[in-house]
């Protein structure tokens, strides 16, 4: 745990290729560089516009900020990104999202130049049904059940996953509580990513203080991009 505490904290800006037009994306990239964003996460539940390749190409051509794919499904892959969060939805009991899609994608991913980051993905109830809980056909972990979250994250660690991502879902009414973050963070040795419904720099700071290693924000910065610099600063 001591080693974990010394690790650098970071901020990831989530980009949903369905939402941003090229002009807005250019402005977002400029702002992200200026603010000192550590990572771009790229992904969405559906990818309606088939814009993933275009978005990744633009990010890679304009910045050195690493681009991590955060795919709604393993059909959402671009080899031009830097890394892939290979998500196993360990809070749910949908075998397709625990192992099924991974089997289908394995031979393809093995040939890919992407760095593969095996990630235990845990949905935590954020106060309203989210796209991801609907599409994944799974129940999130109740927001006040720290014991279930701890055991789920621990199981992910024992299975050899390399990261744990706790997500209240995009646009969640209630972001994950500090109590929940602290409980899980202090029970595992893996880096902990936290996202979903974070709207203020204060909440970013609270998450870091509670033990998150990487904080992810999407929606709030689509609506209020001027908050980006203070949110990033709250991580460092
Ligand atoms: C969702 O954790 C991400 O998967 C980010 O959520 O869009 O609510 O910031 P928001």
From TrEMBL:
It is an enzyme of class 2 (transferase). InterPro entries: GGGP/HepGP_synthase_I, GGGP/HepGP_synthase_sf, GGGP_HepGP_synthase, GGGP_synth. Its EC number is 2.5.1.41. GO terms for biological process: glycerophospholipid biosynthetic process. The keyword Metal-binding applies. Mg(2+) binds at residues 16, 45. GO terms for cellular component: cytoplasm. SUPFAM superfamilies: FMN-linked oxidoreductases (SSF51395). GO terms for molecular function: heptaprenylglyceryl phosphate synthase activity; magnesium ion binding; phosphoglycerol geranylgeranyltransferase activity. Gene3D superfamilies: FMN-linked oxidoreductases (3.20.20.390). Keywords: Lipid biosynthesis, Lipid metabolism, Magnesium, Metal-binding, Phospholipid biosynthesis, Phospholipid metabolism, Transferase. It holds the Pfam family PcrB. Sn-glycerol 1-phosphate binds at residues 165-171, 196-197, 218-219. It catalyses: sn-glycerol 1-phosphate + (2E,6E,10E)-geranylgeranyl diphosphate = sn-3-O-(geranylgeranyl)glycerol 1-phosphate + diphosphate. It comes from the Bacteria. Prenyltransferase that catalyzes the transfer of the geranylgeranyl moiety of geranylgeranyl diphosphate (GGPP) to the C3 hydroxyl of sn-glycerol-1-phosphate (G1P). NCBIfam families: GGGP, GGGP-family, PRK04169.1-2. Belongs to the GGGP/HepGP synthase family. Group II subfamily. This is Geranylgeranylglyceryl phosphate synthase. It comes from Saprospira grandis (strain Lewin).
């Amino acid at each position: 745990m001591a080693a974990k505490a010394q690790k650098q904290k970071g901020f990831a800006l989530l980009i949903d290729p369905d939402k941003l037009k090229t002009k807005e994306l250019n402005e977002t990239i400029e702002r992200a560089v200026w603010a000192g964003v550590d990572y771009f996460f790229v992904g969405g539940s559906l990818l309606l516009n088939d814009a993933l390749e275009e978005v990744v190409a633009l990010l890679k051509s304009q910045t050195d900020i690493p681009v991590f794919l955060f795919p709604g499904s393993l059909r959402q892959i671009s080899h031009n990104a830097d890394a892939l969060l290979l998500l196993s939805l360990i809070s749910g009991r949908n075998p397709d999202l625990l192992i099924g899609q991974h089997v289908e994608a394995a031979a393809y991913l093995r040939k890919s130049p992407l760095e593969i980051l095996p990630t235990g993905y845990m949905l935590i109830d954020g106060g309203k049904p989210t796209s991801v809980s609907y599409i994944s056909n799974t129940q999130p972990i109740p927001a006040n059940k720290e014991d279930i979250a701890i055991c789920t994250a621990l199981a992910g660690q024992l299975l050899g996953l390399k990261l744990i991502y706790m997500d209240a879902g995009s646009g969640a009414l209630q972001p994950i509580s500090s109590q929940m973050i602290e409980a899980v963070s202090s029970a595992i040795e893996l880096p902990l990513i936290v996202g979903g419904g974070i709207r203020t720099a204060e909440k970013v700071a609270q998450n870091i203080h509670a033990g998150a290693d990487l904080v992810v924000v999407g929606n709030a910065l689509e609506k209020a991009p001027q908050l980006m610099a203070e949110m990033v600063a709250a991580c460092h």
